[in-house]
Amino acid sequence: MSCLMCNELLHHHIITCGIISCVSHINTISPPKLSLNYQNQTRTFHQGKDIKDMLKKFGMDDAKAISTPMGTNGSPDSDTSGNMVDKKLYQSMIGSLLYVTTSRPNVMFSVCICARFQASPRESHLKATKRIVRYLKHTQNVGLWNPKDAKFELIGYSDSDYVECNVERGSTSSMCQLLGRSLVSWSSKKQNSVALLSVFYPRGSTNE
Questions:
Q1: pTM for the full model?
Q2: Is 117 in contact with 47 (CB distance < 8 Å)?
Q3: pLDDT tens digit string along 62-101?
Q4: Exposed end of the chain (fewer CB within 10 Å): N or C?
Q5: Are 184 and 177 a contacting pair, CB within 8 Å?
Q6: Would you say residue 172 lies in a domain?
């Protein structure tokens, strides 16, 4: 994968998540360190080296690995009563995680949820972000899978978690496209506005 393509993919993911603070760094960062593995007529692209560098950067080499990127008790909320954490540290972690989504679309939803709190990060948000890093440690060599004998057929999927956002009650729409059995495009985006239902009663009528 070329450097230009990697940066374009990263730019697409950051814009999709609605994160503006990291966009200015797109042209200055180095391209992802994609590793290519061949096994049984298949090719797998992964960012194991980037994940190792991220663990070292944030002092999480010895952190306990975990099997899921987000807990089952719901996604983080605004937590206005929680203790504030270092904003620059938090934004740096989010930026590093977004970098890894070049080959790890399975963590994009979790990363985008945590990225919404960059303006005022709390301890609960940092804990959720570190959980994603611990999950990546558990799955360092997981990546994009490309079988050699796949059929050249484009298939798309989409989904929405209607009004599940704990903060703004908005919906998050997700989509992905596969060419054959290979994932080639993906996104996760929260709606910009919340639709309100109103009922109009003509003059003189009553609501019984």
A1: 0.68
A2: no
A3: 999 999 999 887 778 888 899 999 999 999 999 999 989 8
A4: C
A5: yes
A6: no
Query: How many domains, in total, are found in the chain?
Result: 1
Domain hosting 121: range is: 3-147
Given a contact cutoff of 8 angstroms between Cβ atoms, the answer to whether 70 and 171 are in contact is: no
Query: Could you tell me the pLDDT band of residue 14, with boundaries at 50, 70 and 90?
Result: very low
| CA–CA gap between residue 126 and residue 118 (Å, rounded) | 10
Q: What is the pLDDT of residue 10?
A: 42
Distance of CA 60 to the CA centre of its chain: 20
Q: Print the SS3 string covering 143-182.
A: CEEEECCCCCCEEEEEEECCCCCCCCCCCEEEEEEEECCE
Give domain status of residue 35, yes or no. yes
Name residue, tokens 């990263």.
10
What pLDDT is recorded for position 8? 40
User: Structure tokens of 205?
Assistant: 């009528």
